[in-house]
Fold each of these.
Amino acid sequence: MKNTVKILSIVLVLVMAIGMLVSCAASTFPAIKSRFENAGYTVDAEEATTGEIETEEGVITYTIHTITLKKEESEGEGSLGDLIGGIIDSGVAALKTVYVWEFGSDEELTKAIAEKYQDDKDFQDIIADLQNSDYVNGNCFMVPNLNEDAVDLFKGNK
């Protein structure tokens, strides 16, 4: 009986450890993508690009996702509203587009940014508190954006 309890305990601990490892390695991007899509943004998988950052420990691969606010359907063509809307749209395009860099893990994100900005003394303080930044969510980094709604959606505050 004692051997059975020991074996079951060991199996249970192993299952819990594997579960923790799998949950830690999971990307936060699917949840981020879902929040943006629910708020009227689109994520174009074809526009996603990949890149690499070389570090002392090896190469870190990342994916850049482009998230864009869907355009409202126009009521009519050639109206003054369309003209003004087009001018405004071009002026605030930066508020309608969000770029999210997805890394393999939280640690890879931190290492990649530290490697990229290792010579920038001002940036070292930011790196020290990176995971608490509004622009970092797990293994994803959002390029700073003036759109407060985008920041809230990215962090899951909305």
Note: Residues 27-155 form one domain.
Amino acid sequence: MGWKADASAVSYLANWEMALGWFSKKNDGISPQENLPRIGTVEGPALFRHREDEVLLSYEIAPVDGGGNVILAFSKVVYFEQNPNNVHEGLANSKYPVRMWDITEVPVSDRTERWSCEFHCHRFWTISFNDWMIEIVFSSVRKVHEDREQISPDAALLNYMISLR
């Protein structure tokens, strides 16, 4: 026999979800809680699957945040893809919320529902670059490296990987 909510509980939850915008087909998503440098608009990102369930992402830091590169390590990654997607033309056709040159957290989606359980919550981000969009479902993220050196994200990621040896 399943649990049944009374009408007031259902109404309360419905109002709460509507207030957060979760019922809209295409909500705006939210900014992640992490304080990360803004994405630059010139260089493309570099991705590397590291270990069994970790993905490293290197991206250009916007000049307003000091320039250079940052490398993020996503842990317990269950899904990721990188697609060509021009910010001026392709973002409007995206299935999930995404903002130009930004990181968008999608709090409720089929991606998180599929992979989360009561013991393990997953997060879903869309990340937009000049000509690429990344979708990633993960449990945690941390900044593992940041520098002001004016090199490509690929070179920054390679330098970081070499430093791990």
Note: Residues 26-163 form one domain.
Amino acid sequence: MIVIGRGQPPQWVWVSAARVQWMRARLAVVGLAVVGAALVFGIVLVAVGLKLPSSRNPINVIGVMIAGLAAFWVLLAGLSLLGARSCAQREHVDVNGARLVRRLLGVWWGGAIFCVLGAWFVEVMTFRRAPVMVGSALYLALLAVIVVLGGVAFFAAGNILRRARV
């Protein structure tokens, strides 16, 4: 069952103002880094994928579109990190909002993993019809980078939000 909406009402827990500022700053830095990297790697991923020798195969084009969708999931993870700053205000942290953000980041990362596995499978499946080149290895490595970016967003948010004993 998918729950749509904000979830439980806010449950504010007191945290020092310095800790809240630290949390908000870290979430902004990591969120902006993930958003920027997701945009850059998503564009590079699609550009490299469409330049591969196997790109003449329509199945591979579908795989490249799936890879672009994986970058979109990571972009959403970065935007969720930026939005998580609203869970820490003044001298309080919204525990329920922070939990919701962490669950959402897990969903985005899971979607990215699923899409990367699909794109990886499609690319490896087309190796029989096209020669394996440096571009293919670069493409597969970029797919792995997308998964790593999603993991960075997930674990960074968990670490930052957990420091408030959330």
Note: Residues 57-166 form one domain.
